[in-house]
């Protein structure tokens, strides 16, 4: 592919991920390139949105919490909340789990 220089993600890794689907038997080179480029643009958009809406502007950095906040607060990225959950302390999780168990016991 003559446009290989225009992408940053490793094409071989994207091919491997695509082939992991049982629905995919063969992958056209153009489809592979376009999927790789689209993935790269999506990640760039997520990173820029997270940076612009997070604390990163002040510190010139991007953190996991910025990404998780963007996934939770932006409808476009809401589907990512399962893989980018907000971090909580173990004691807070255990407390909420205990409360849920108490509520279940009330029924």
From TrEMBL:
Keywords: Acetylation, Coiled coil, DNA-binding, Nucleotidyltransferase, Nucleus, Phosphoprotein, Transferase. One of its GO terms (cellular component) is CHRAC. It is found in: Nucleus. It comes from the Eukaryota. It holds the Pfam family CBFD_NFYB_HMF. GO terms for molecular function: DNA binding; nucleotidyltransferase activity; protein heterodimerization activity. Gene3D superfamilies: Histone, subunit A. Signal peptide: none annotated. Residues 8-50 form the Transcription factor CBF/NF-Y/archaeal histone domain. One of its GO terms (biological process) is DNA-templated DNA replication. Forms a complex with DNA polymerase epsilon subunit POLE3 and binds naked DNA, which is then incorporated into chromatin, aided by the nucleosome remodeling activity of ISWI/SNF2H and ACF1. Does not enhance nucleosome sliding activity of the ACF-5 ISWI chromatin remodeling complex. Heterodimer with POLE3; binds to DNA. Component of the CHRAC ISWI chromatin remodeling complex at least composed of SMARCA5/SNF2H, BAZ1A/ACF1, CHRAC1 and POLE3; the complex preferentially binds DNA through the CHRAC1-POLE3 heterodimer and possesses ATP-dependent nucleosome-remodeling activity. Within the complex, the heterodimer with POLE3 interacts with SMARCA5/SNF2H; the interaction is direct and enhances nucleosome sliding activity by the SMARCA5/SNF2H and BAZ1A/ACF1 interaction. Within the complex, the heterodimer with POLE3 interacts with BAZ1A/ACF1; the interactions are direct. PANTHER family: CHROMATIN ACCESSIBILITY COMPLEX PROTEIN 1 (PTHR10252:SF54), HISTONE-LIKE TRANSCRIPTION FACTOR CCAAT-RELATED (PTHR10252). This is Chromatin accessibility complex protein 1. It comes from Sparus aurata.
């Amino acid at each position: 592919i003559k446009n290989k220089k225009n992408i940053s993600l490793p094409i071989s890794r994207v091919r491997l991920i695509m082939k992991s689907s049982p629905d995919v038997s063969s992958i056209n080179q153009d489809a592979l390139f376009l999927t790789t480029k689209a993935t790269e643009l999506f990640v760039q958009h997520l990173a820029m949105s997270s940076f612009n809406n997070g604390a990163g502007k002040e510190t010139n950095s991007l953190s996991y919490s910025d990404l998780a906040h963007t996934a939770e607060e932006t409808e476009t990225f809401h589907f990512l909340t399962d893989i980018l959950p907000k971090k909580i302390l173990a004691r807070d999780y255990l407390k909420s789990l205990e409360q849920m168990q108490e509520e279940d016991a009330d029924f």
